[in-house]
């Protein structure tokens, strides 16, 4: 259970503070301030550049992460998993950056109401409820405020005495769906348009064994597999993962040298290895989307989507479904699809438009034009369109390049014993801004 969550600047200023003990025990303001000051004194008193992540002060355990030059801190009196709270704090910082457009002391000060609303939905009575963007965007109503950086080449914001006149701009609604932009024109001219902003791969190796007398199974992985950025093996291009975890029954005596896993599998399905890779991915995203949103008539908006599959020509994606989240009130829709096997459906209750493609071969390009009738459509309403979320399955595909070199059973099985390997990639959260 989390007792307190607070965000401090490098100078010790209290930017955000949430005390979950106050609900049960009010009138604890002085004790709360003392704990915050105690944490800051411990952090600043350390001589090393990297303070410990977990520290204790008067019965409280402080777990913190430093993001954007700020201290993101959670305190607890119990003994929860520190990795869970660290992951929560990093996720809170990432969500704050996504909602506010940047991560800094100024953006936190300008969007304190939005951050408090985020905390109210993410944590209840000290217990973490959710950190999913798809769930939170249905509840967050506060509009984000952005700060335009000062530039000597743009004097339009400079007043009579050099002061800022219109530095802050309020984003249109649905700020929860994407980092804010002051207008759609700025969004398309942004340096980040068309650039991969964030990518994570989470994979696992599973085995299904139905042999009654299998004493040991040897699984050979890529010999050039490296764990972390500093470790390299072999002379060819290394296959890298940031971290990996193994089942407790896996023997690793040959893993460091030969990248071989040894396990005595039980009957049924078992996960022997889990791995994760962040940011620097070895392959490009499988899809590229080229959107266009325009106002047609008084109450009609045109949504044109051109989707390209960047897989090799011999590969295919199965069941991709594309869901742009349009405007608040939808009435009717007509569509023009590039092939007859595609389908499209308007879902007014979900405020969504579903475009389904049964099979998408690599190197192909598909398009769709949707004419959506929206009562009371305005130019500002066009900013509410997006983002686009996709779900798909890529058979025979591993995004990290991790492969099974061999699969051997010991002792050798008599009779029929089929050994085969299947690769598949599933989408978890694949979101594209428009």
UniProtKB/TrEMBL annotation:
GO terms for biological process: intracellular protein transport; vesicle-mediated transport. It is a peripheral membrane protein. Keywords: Coated pit, Membrane, Protein transport, Transport. It is found in: Membrane, Coated pit. Coiled coil: none annotated. It holds the Pfam family Adap_comp_sub. GO terms for cellular component: clathrin adaptor complex; clathrin-coated pit. The keyword Iron does not apply. Its main location: membrane. Residues 173-433 form the MHD domain. Transmembrane segments: none annotated. Belongs to the adaptor complexes medium subunit family. PANTHER family: AP COMPLEX SUBUNIT MU. This is AP-4 complex subunit mu-1-like. It comes from Sinocyclocheilus grahami (Dianchi golden-line fish).
């Amino acid at each position: 259970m989390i007792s307190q969550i607070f965000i401090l600047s490098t100078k010790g200023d209290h930017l955000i503070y949430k005390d979950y003990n106050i609900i049960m025990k009010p009138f604890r303001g002085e004790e709360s301030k003392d704990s915050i000051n105690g944490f800051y004194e411990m952090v600043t008193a350390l001589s090393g550049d990297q303070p410990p992540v977990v520290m204790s002060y008067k019965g409280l355990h402080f777990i913190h992460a430093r993001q954007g030059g700020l201290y993101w801190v959670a305190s607890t009196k119990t003994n929860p998993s520190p990795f869970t709270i660290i992951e929560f704090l990093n996720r809170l910082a990432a969500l704050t950056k996504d909602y506010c457009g940047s991560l800094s002391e100024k953006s936190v000060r300008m969007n304190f109401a939005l951050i408090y609303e985020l905390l109210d939905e993410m944590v209840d009575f000290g217990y973490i409820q959710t950190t999913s963007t798809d769930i939170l965007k249905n509840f967050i109503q506060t509009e984000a405020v952005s700060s335009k950086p000062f530039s000597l080449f743009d004097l339009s914001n400079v007043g009579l005495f050099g002061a800022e006149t219109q530095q802050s701009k309020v984003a249109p609604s649905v700020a929860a769906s994407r980092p804010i932009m002051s207008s759609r024109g700025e969004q398309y001219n942004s340096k980040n348009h068309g650039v991969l902003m964030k990518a994570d791969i989470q994979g696992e190796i599973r085995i299904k064994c139905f042999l009654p007398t299998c004493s040991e199974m040897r699984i050979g992985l890529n010999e050039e597999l490296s764990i972390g950025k500093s470790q390299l093996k072999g002379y060819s291009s290394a296959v890298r993962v940031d971290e990996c975890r193994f089942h407790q029954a896996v023997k690793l005596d040959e893993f460091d040298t030969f990248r071989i896993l040894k396990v005595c599998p039980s009957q049924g399905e078992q996960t022997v290895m889990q791995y994760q890779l962040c940011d620097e991915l070895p392959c490009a995203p499988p899809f590229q989307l080229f959107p266009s949103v325009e106002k047609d008539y008084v109450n009609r908006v045109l949504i044109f989507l051109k989707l390209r599959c960047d897989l090799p020509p011999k590969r295919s994606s199965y069941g991709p479904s594309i869901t742009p989240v349009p405007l608040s009130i939808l009435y009717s829709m007509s569509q023009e699809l590039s092939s007859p096997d595609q389908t499209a459906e308007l879902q007014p209750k979900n405020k969504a438009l579903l475009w389904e493609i049964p099979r998408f071969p690599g190197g192909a390009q598909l398009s769709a034009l949707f004419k959506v009738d929206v009562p009371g459509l305005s130019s500002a309403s066009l900013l509410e369109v997006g983002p686009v979320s996709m779900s798909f399955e890529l058979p025979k595909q591993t995004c990290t390049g991790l492969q099974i070199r061999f699969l051997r059973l010991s002792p050798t099985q008599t009779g029929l014993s089929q050994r085969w390997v299947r690769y598949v990639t599933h989408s978890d959260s694949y979101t594209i801004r428009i």
